[in-house]
Each structure stands twice: as structure tokens, then as C-alpha cells.
Specification:
The chain is built from twelve helices and 16 strands. The strands form three sheets. The protein has an eight-stranded antiparallel sheet, with helices on both faces. Strands 3-2-1-4 form a four-stranded parallel sheet, sandwiched between helices. Strands 5-8-6-7 form a four-stranded antiparallel sheet, with helices on both faces. α1 packs across α11.
Length: about 400
């Protein structure tokens, strides 16, 4: 076993348990910095050498000061963000401590929706027509030649958080008045009706060595704004859809320049023209229990593989993918009226995973038969609506 490497993980949300376990299994000394409100979550304490708490991980200078103080006694060699909202903080920590990994400029391409669109567009990748929210004359020109509907999107929120639908110019000006000094942290983009897909990847030495393509049942923005059941299903790798997505995904990752790591990218296929557009990408494991779906279908736990990959890189070793299987899978997740919903009636043999989270219902189905997966998703979606579904207004800001 190589000499232990001390790593620090930041997480302002309860996630990444498999990363922590695998890092410890690989012989690392594992430090976790999280928020005080998360201290009683089911963290894998047996895999954490030092459990550190702060009131608020969003206060950047406080975090830099605390981690710098920690470094007086701990020889930290790598820092990782387990949650989307810690990615920029970790990039700043790497810059401050001069540690390897994505710094602030590279991180922008996988966090800032404006930066990733400009970089992708400059690289010849199709993106929905967009404009920054800086200069009002440019905004007027954009709205004069790009027809509505438009989306006013926060540049650094996750998922559909904070997105506003804009139907006509006066509506935009009202929102900008409301946003005040925050308006430069948004972009304006044309809404393209279409089918939304996601591709989850593992990258080593600049090459995609694993990718799994999935299609959402409804676009996540629709579920977030209108309610409904969140579903996604794996696509057969040999299908025309998957092949088109793999090619576009490869172009995006090469253009944005991630040398190694994991990514979760989203794409849309326009109903009107059938063209695929790049929507966004994050250099992290996908949320919404997507990693559980991929593990059930392929046998690969993306959290654990990410840890293995990063530790191999830190040690100057070669990372190799383990053996994997090829099955078809589907995921359903819904807010639930019940605190702990009873899903025992969903007992088909294809059900391989159930969610364990308050006021949520969710499960994963896996089969050798793609049509069986789709049939179960269709059936279970209708049953979830009756048995569990609750709806709450979309949040403008994160709660964690």
C-alpha cells in the first residue's frame, strides 16, 4: 500500500458517502468538512478520520481561513467538492493553497452557465441562442431578433433552481428591476421545446472512458416548475440517440478541457428541427439519485469510481475501469405527502433499489428488456401520482 494521502472533502449537503468510503478503502486519510446542521446525518464515520463542522460553507473567506489553519497540522494533498455548491469554494481553496485540481478558471466552464455557453459556442457546439445580462442595448437587440419564449437563468445555480420564463420584453425589465445588483449573475436564453437527455461520464487523461446516456421523461425544469414525477431511463448504447449524444458529449468535454474526473451533462433535441443542443455540464456526479440508476444498470458506482480515479491520479498511477454489465434501467422520484411512504406494493422483480429519504418516494427498475423498463416507468408514474405525489413551489435559492 502506498503512503497515505490526506484528502479533504467539502459538502454543504448530505451526499458522497460512497466517495468517502472508497477513499478510505484506498488507504487515504479522509477529512470531511460539512455544515453544523448536517452533523447528525448518516455519514460513514468509520471512513472519516476527522469530522469537521462550520456554520456556513458559503462564506468563502471563513472557509479559506479555517482550512488554512487546518493545514498547520494536516498535510492536505487534495481537496474535493462533494456538492455542486462547494465546487467554486474548493477551486478557490486549491488556488490559495496551490494544490492540484481544477482551479477557478477551469471550474467556471463547469459551473457558470454563461462561461460554458460562450466556450462551447466558440468551439462550434450548438447551444440555444443566448445573451449575457450586462448591456441593455444588447438585450434589446437580442429580444428584437430572437423570438420568445425566453428563460432568465441564474449562472451558477444547480438544475432548474431560480429559472424564470419570460414571455415578452416588459416582463424581463420587471425581473431585472427586482434583481437589482444580482442581474449580472443571470443570462437570457431562448426556450427550445424538446426532449432532454443527460450523459454521465468518467474522464481519464482527457478521454471519455465511460459514458452512460439517459433520457428524462419530462424535462427537469417542467417537473420543478409544474410538479410531476421525475423519471429518467438509460438508452441502448447502440441506438441512434445514444450515439449522437456520445459524439456531442465528447466534443463538449474536449472543448471545455477537463483532463480527468466525472461529469454530468444535459442536452436537448429540438422538437422542431431534431437538432441536439448543449444545455449545461457539471464536473461532478449527477444528483437526483441518477448515480443509483447507473450503478443498477452498469454495476459502476460513479462516486466510488471518482474516488478511485482521483487517488490514482494523485499517486501517479493508472486508473482502469472495473468490469461492468449492460442492462436497461429506469428511475422514478417524487415528493411524497407521507413522511415515510410505503412502497411495498411496488414489488415487481425488476425493482432493485428504493429511496430512503423523508417525504420522498422513489425506486429504480432494471431489466434485460428495454420495453419492460419503459412499461414499468409508465405504470409506476401513474401510480405514484395517486399514491404519493406532493407539489411545492419551485425554490429560487437552495435550502442547503
Amino acid at each position: 500500500m502506498s503512503e497515505p494521502i490526506t484528502i479533504l472533502c467539502l459538502s454543504s449537503y448530505f451526499k458522497g458517502e460512497a466517495f468517502l468510503r472508497e477513499a478510505k478503502r484506498q488507504g487515504c486519510r479522509v477529512l470531511l468538512l460539512t455544515e453544523e446542521k448536517l452533523k447528525d446525518e448518516k455519514w460513514p464515520r468509520e471512513s472519516i478520520d476527522d469530522f469537521l463542522l462550520m456554520p456556513d460553507l458559503s462564506r468563502l473567506q471563513d472557509v479559506i481561513n479555517a482550512v488554512s489553519y487546518l493545514c498547520r497540522a494536516q498535510d492536505i494533498r487534495r481537496i474535493f467538492a462533494l456538492d455542486e455548491y462547494d465546487v467554486e469554494t474548493v477551486a478557490a481553496l486549491r488556488e490559495h493553497l496551490r494544490l492540484p485540481g481544477a482551479g477557478q478558471t477551469l471550474t467556471r466552464f463547469f459551473r457558470d452557465k454563461l462561461a460554458m455557453r460562450i466556450k462551447a459556442s466558440d468551439g462550434g457546439i450548438a447551444v440555444p441562442p443566448f445573451t449575457p445580462v450586462f448591456n441593455y442595448d444588447r438585450l434589446r437587440d437580442y429580444m428584437g431578433h430572437v423570438p420568445p419564449l425566453w428563460l432568465l437563468k441564474p449562472r451558477t445555480e444547480a438544475g432548474a433552481m431560480g429559472i424564470k420564463k419570460i414571455h415578452e420584453p416588459e416582463e424581463l425589465w420587471r425581473w431585472l428591476d427586482t434583481l437589482g445588483d444580482r442581474q449580472s449573475h443571470f443570462l437570457l436564453e431562448q426556450y427550445i421545446p424538446g426532449d432532454v437527455f443527460h450523459v454521465d461520464s468518467i474522464i481519464w487523461e482527457g478521454e471519455i472512458i465511460f459514458a452512460s446516456a439517459q433520457q428524462y421523461g419530462q424535462p427537469p425544469m417542467n417537473v420543478a416548475h409544474e410538479g410531476g414525477i421525475f423519471t429518467t431511463r438509460t438508452l441502448p448504447p447502440e441506438s441512434d440517440e445514444a450515439q449522437a449524444l456520445y459524439a456531442l458529449n465528447r466534443q463538449v468535454i474536449q472543448t471545455l478541457g477537463l483532463p480527468h474526473g466525472v461529469t454530468h451533462a444535459e442536452y436537448i433535441r429540438s422538437h422542431a428541427e431534431g437538432r441536439y443542443y448543449f444545455l449545461e455540464i457539471a464536473a461532478r456526479v449527477g444528483g437526483a439519485f441518477i448515480a443509483d440508476l447507473i450503478e443498477a444498470a452498469t454495476g459502476l458506482n460513479l462516486w466510488a469510481e471518482w474516488a478511485r480515479l482521483e487517488i490514482a491520479h494523485a499517486r501517479g498511477q493508472v486508473y482502469r475501469l472495473p468490469e461492468r454489465r449492460r442492462k436497461h434501467g429506469g428511475l422514478l422520484v417524487s415528493l411524497a405527502r407521507q413522511e415515510y411512504p410505503d412502497m411495498s406494493a411496488y414489488n415487481d422483480p425488476e425493482v432493485v433499489w428504493r429511496i430512503d429519504k423523508k417525504h420522498h418516494a422513489g425506486l429504480v427498475v432494471v431489466s434485460e428488456d428495454q420495453t419492460r423498463v419503459q412499461s414499468l416507468l409508465n405504470d409506476y408514474t401513474q401510480r405514484f401520482i395517486t399514491d404519493f405525489m406532493a407539489v411545492q413551489p419551485p425554490k429560487d435559492r437552495p435550502t442547503h
